[in-house]
Design goal:
Layout (H helix, E strand, L loop, with lengths): L2 E6 L7 H10 L5 E6 L4 E6 L5 H10 L11
Antiparallel strand pairs: 1-3, 2-3
Amino acid sequence: MTKVQRTFHLQQQPDDAVLTRLAAANSTYGIEKIRLTAEGLLVEFDATRLRVADVEAVLQRAGVAVLDPAAV
């Protein structure tokens, strides 16, 4: 297992509904931890199971709008 930590910068702060969906997204196979920080969402995941694009897709399905890394 190759653990990777990646911070995803948010377009806006998540509301209660999004936080509830993020809790469910935390159970996605390969995602170890999702934590809200001052910089955005810190996601720890298994890189042998998921790519960054896969994690972004999980966040989008949870309703989280992340910024393009090139825009940050």
